[in-house]
Amino acid sequence: MRTRPLKVALLGCGVVGSEVARIMTTHADDLAARIGAPVELAGVAVRRPGKVREGIDPALVTTDATALVKRGDIDVVVEVIGGIEPARTLITAAFEHGASVVSANKALLAQDGAALHAAAEENGKDLYYEAAVAGAIPLIRPLRESLAGDKVNRVLGIVNGTTNFILDKMDSTGAGYQEALDEATALGYAEADPTADVEGFDAAAKAAILAGIAFHTRVRLDDVYREGMTEVTAADFASAKEMGCTIKLLAICERAADGASVTARVHPAMIPLSHPLASVRGAYNAVFVESDAAGQLMFYGPGAGGSPTASAVLGDLVAVCRNRLSGATGPGESAYAALPVSPMGDVVTRYHISLDVADKPGVLAQVATVFAEHGVSIDTVRQQGKDGEASLVVVTHRASDAALNGTVEALRSLDTVRGVASIMRVEGE
Amino acid sequence: MRTRPLKVALLGCGVVGSEVARIMTTHADDLAARIGAPVELAGVAVRRPGKVREGIDPALVTTDATALVKRGDIDVVVEVIGGIEPARTLITAAFEHGASVVSANKALLAQDGAALHAAAEENGKDLYYEAAVAGAIPLIRPLRESLAGDKVNRVLGIVNGTTNFILDKMDSTGAGYQEALDEATALGYAEADPTADVEGFDAAAKAAILAGIAFHTRVRLDDVYREGMTEVTAADFASAKEMGCTIKLLAICERAADGASVTARVHPAMIPLSHPLASVRGAYNAVFVESDAAGQLMFYGPGAGGSPTASAVLGDLVAVCRNRLSGATGPGESAYAALPVSPMGDVVTRYHISLDVADKPGVLAQVATVFAEHGVSIDTVRQQGKDGEASLVVVTHRASDAALNGTVEALRSLDTVRGVASIMRVEGE
Ligand SMILES: NC(=O)c1ccc[n+]([C@@H]2O[C@H](COP(=O)([O-])OP(=O)(O)OC[C@H]3O[C@@H](n4cnc5c(N)ncnc54)[C@H](OP(=O)(O)O)[C@@H]3O)[C@@H](O)[C@H]2O)c1
Ligand SMILES: NC(=O)c1ccc[n+]([C@@H]2O[C@H](COP(=O)([O-])OP(=O)(O)OC[C@H]3O[C@@H](n4cnc5c(N)ncnc54)[C@H](OP(=O)(O)O)[C@@H]3O)[C@@H](O)[C@H]2O)c1
């Protein structure tokens, strides 16, 4: 074993960073044995230097992250600050000054992954980010290494713990969205400003990263269709139950049937209770991967939290350190397939649509005609009437999003349709 | 991209090998892009040269596997013959003649993993074997790389598809063991001689491999306690149901509470229906991993079959080829922790015991005294009497296997105990 230690600069010492520092200390001997050399915490960059940080030598703490990454003697920079800047500039500077980088920053990787990978490659360094998607669950490494000899066709996952907690609450207690969100906030599962989670931005960033790796194609954040889950109602859950389904916020990355293009999207969807993702409870994450040869694989575990996320960061740290010792680099960006990313209109799936309609004869025929005119084939219809009001619940066969949208627009213009109460996709069948 | 191809020798072209060859051909461009150089099938060793093999150039086929691995121009040897010899000699010769090795051979790795790893290291070559455990499910790579910065405490898994198929059948249809086995055989899920599967030898080999990687300790096949599932009865399933459980053949690798030793075992066990492993159906495999920082992770997928297993082999092939191009090797054996492997007697778990007893007063008191004398604390007892016969079902708190065995021996010597109908461990709580 080499005795000269590898030097690690930790950028950020919050929820994740403090756990990374703790485990680096408590598991120092194991890490050294697994890497083949000791690793030393050489500096910790934070915003508030005065804050007491248990187990961290105050002499290592600095507010000058830039100077830290430019020191020149740093082997690995661990970026757990989050956000776009200064993380992006710091990571780029790290590569230029000879360090490899481990990051947990999904927002940055989804937005600027290509440029960061290019900077890593130019400087012959590693960029690893297992922790950026689904916390502790090994997902990036299985996708880009274990399945490197296979053809992935679909990735379907629950990749945001906050929204899964809320939806699970709504499902199990009949609570409305706001009530479930309040509970999630009180228990620390939702942040004070939950927008990034409940509007699907966080899941969309992860979908972009997963699609890119799965399809060997650059998928930018803007390529991901995104719909939040704030409008899911208790009534939607009741409808889902009637269909033997529950509702999850899903990230779905798919290769088109002809293999010539891909799509990535995030939205709430009904999935059958028999689907393994339906039983993912609380803040847990799980990701289904379908490939040509392997078939269906599922990966399940805690998608967030300081210590699970630190586990993923440290796994990357060991790999990057080992690469450094052997003078090699791990797999970089693989975007050779360069498949076009199709717009949402091209996505083909099934739909569950609730309509408020006039309670008079002929309405069903009128509605059915509109579906037929738009080439959307109906699987089942259920009519319910009460007090002169009636509702129609239509479940379609597979149709394109464009065709469905055309159908809904035409339905809205019918006199007999008072309103479209809800539209939800049906997945996982 | 390098244009000179990497040369692959395929040893064995059966269920797995033929799929490896097929995918190497159909996905040649993708593999080349992902590796950075084309891969070429340079030779295929089989036993029966005359057999027609679709898609395989007959000029490549040979019965002289030894000459093939010794050619000197082979970059990677893929060993999918199975069994101990000639696989072991061929793999060793491959390293000595400059090749790296990808193998799916759990029996060989469990028996001689240490020697093979040593041969790989001596020659500066890679030995990868993701396919040896749980087929297509990425498990070796996540354990040895993703969790390299964490401390794994427990691996609990269904790693044999044949026995899971049989037990699932017994559970869902009430069939007995023989009937379920016959169906598994008819459907091709069980081999003509099912011994390796139903007696737990296959699972034990996988447990040895998993324990070794998880605990950075050499665990030999002989270190694994093994009990098959041929004696599981319909009555056991009925008892399990009464407890809200089902029965699975589990491979369990555990670090002792004090962290100073490990155990590995394979046996049928009751697990609660609420446990994710309880809902693993048919021939699927799933493995639960518990670690300090990551918490609970689960990996699920097809544990066997030509094409899923080939997916795992090809993932390794890509990694090994990439390593070759960069002049590096991946993580080798990690056995630095060298923890002692404790005998089965030291394993601590819960037990479900059915006793046939005389239907007279005082029997329960007698039985309870025996448990107490051996330090085994009782959780629940259920008495059932009919026609002068009675049965007692005892569920214990956690106790050592040694204490339980002592208890059972003493129970057998009681006049009032006519027989011990079944003893089953209760796991996953
Ligand atoms: N938390 C999770 O469960 C989780 C899960 C997966 C991925 N991630 C990702 O991990 C990253 C970190 O998340 P977190 O939850 O640990 O965040 P956090 O608790 O808010 O910690 C952020 C840290 O960065 C420091 N920091 C902020 N601005 C800085 C600057 N300009 N220069 C130097 N340091 C600065 C902060 O310093 P002070 O301590 O002085 O405020 C703090 O230590 C994010 O990319 C996040 O998306 C988090
Ligand atoms: N099948 C699965 O689902 C699965 C799953 C995981 C792991 N594995 C592992 O993968 C390995 C291969 O399994 P398999 O199911 O593919 O076995 P298989 O169908 O029996 O194929 C074995 C192949 O090896 C060839 N062979 C046998 N002895 C040989 C010798 N002395 N020299 C050269 N070739 C020889 C056979 O030649 P002929 O074709 O001429 O008979 C045949 O092509 C085993 O280690 C197994 O444990 C299999």
TrEMBL record, chains A, B:
<keyword id="KW-0028">Amino-acid biosynthesis</keyword>
<keyword id="KW-0560">Oxidoreductase</keyword>
<dbReference type="InterPro" id="IPR045865">
    <property type="entry name" value="ACT-like_dom_sf"/>
</dbReference>
<dbReference type="InterPro" id="IPR001342">
    <property type="entry name" value="HDH_cat"/>
</dbReference>
<dbReference type="InterPro" id="IPR005106">
    <property type="entry name" value="Asp/hSer_DH_NAD-bd"/>
</dbReference>
<dbReference type="Pfam" id="PF01842">
    <property type="entry name" value="ACT"/>
</dbReference>
<dbReference type="InterPro" id="IPR036291">
    <property type="entry name" value="NAD(P)-bd_dom_sf"/>
</dbReference>
<keyword id="KW-0486">Methionine biosynthesis</keyword>
<dbReference type="Pfam" id="PF00742">
    <property type="entry name" value="Homoserine_dh"/>
</dbReference>
<dbReference type="GO" id="GO:0004412">
    <property type="term" value="F:homoserine dehydrogenase activity"/>
</dbReference>
<dbReference type="InterPro" id="IPR002912">
    <property type="entry name" value="ACT_dom"/>
</dbReference>
<comment type="function">
    <text>Catalyzes the conversion of L-aspartate-beta-semialdehyde (L-Asa) to L-homoserine (L-Hse), the third step in the biosynthesis of threonine and methionine from aspartate.</text>
</comment>
<comment type="pathway">
    <text>Amino-acid biosynthesis; L-threonine biosynthesis; L-threonine from L-aspartate: step 3/5.</text>
</comment>
<dbReference type="InterPro" id="IPR019811">
    <property type="entry name" value="HDH_CS"/>
</dbReference>
<feature type="domain" description="ACT">
    <location>
        <begin position="352"/>
        <end position="425"/>
    </location>
</feature>
<keyword id="KW-0915">Sodium</keyword>
<protein>
    <recommendedName>
        <fullName>Homoserine dehydrogenase</fullName>
        <ecNumber>1.1.1.3</ecNumber>
    </recommendedName>
</protein>
<comment type="pathway">
    <text>Amino-acid biosynthesis; L-methionine biosynthesis via de novo pathway; L-homoserine from L-aspartate: step 3/3.</text>
</comment>
<keyword id="KW-0521">NADP</keyword>
<comment type="similarity">
    <text>Belongs to the homoserine dehydrogenase family.</text>
</comment>
<dbReference type="Pfam" id="PF03447">
    <property type="entry name" value="NAD_binding_3"/>
</dbReference>
<keyword id="KW-0791">Threonine biosynthesis</keyword>
<dbReference type="InterPro" id="IPR016204">
    <property type="entry name" value="HDH"/>
</dbReference>
